[in-house]
Amino acid sequence: MSDSISADTSMGAVTLRVADLDAMTAYYRDAVALDILEADGPRTVLGRGDTAVVILEHAPELRHASPHEAGLYHTAILFDTPAALAASVFSVATRRPGSFTGSSDHFVSEAFYFDDPEGNGVELYWDRDRSEWRWDGSQVEMGVVRLDPNAYLEQHLTEAGVEDPRIGGTRVGHVHLQVGDIAAATEFYVGTVGFDLTANFGAQAAFASAGGYHHHIGMNTWRSAGAGRRSAGLGLGRVEIALPDADAQAALAERLQAGGVATRDDGRTIAFDDPWGTEIIATAP
User: Fold this and answer.
1) What pLDDT is recorded for position 3?
2) Domain-by-domain residue ranges, the chain?
């Protein structure tokens, strides 16, 4: 059994429990410019092509979680070209301008940040070519440098993107979580699940990935230091890890069992909880 999760692992759709399904659907459809792939009563799946990005589950009986609880920091939606990213950013900026919270050049990527109508963080980003990433051993260099959104749109926004922001492909590139303790989160996601640690910022944040990506999982305690197990609430429902095949799924199940993590196997997916009660679903084709 390998100590690391399969190098071909990626992230799947993020499920959000929402109070107002219509308003949240409108935000991700009309502003972020995703397509409705499935709408079945209290559940709406949005993405592009055949790739689901966000799953919205109507749960009006739940209350909003405290911002200091463990849970979602942001869902990071990856675009395949700067033009596609610019089109989506322009769409959100024109349709929901009040939801913009910032933008940064992270050296490995260029990113724009928003909050959806129920306060869930959303990152829209594009990756620089891997040949441009800088590594110090197993640690990737990531930083936070101001990125001018107007200059970015002036450089990359096309007429086609203004007319129809649904250009290019997109998927979940990474998921950034709020956790109660970085050492415990690293032990779980790296030591047990098998991601490789790619950056560590002491007790404040850590990043981990499969296959030499800059990060598939982000973990921070910026607002949630000391948080315990999550209470049932609106916001993050579950995070999907997309494994390449059944062998990789079986290897993950073996690592979880060895680590004493309880799993739920329905024959297609393996579900398990992180130390703060965030549900993770591991899928394979």
Assistant:
1) 82
2) 10-283
State the residue for tokens 């590594």.
135
User: 56 Cβ partners below 8 Å, 6+ apart?
Assistant: 15, 16, 18, 21, 24, 25, 28, 43, 44, 45, 46
* Banded model confidence at residue 2, pLDDT cuts 50, 70, 90: low
Report yes or no on whether pTM surpasses 0.90. yes
Q: Is the dihedral of CA 121, 79, 48, 164 positive or negative?
A: positive
CATH number of 10-283: 3.10.180.10
3-state class of 265 per DSSP? Answer: strand
User: Coil, strand or helix: which one is 175?
Assistant: strand
224 C-beta neighbours (distance < 10 Å), count: 23
Q: At what angle do helices 82-95 and 149-156 cross, to 10 degrees?
A: 130
User: Is the distance from CB of 248 to CB of 5 less than 8 angstroms?
Assistant: yes
Give 156's DSSP letter.
Answer: H
Closest to 118 (Cα-Cα) out of 33, 29, 232, 16: 16
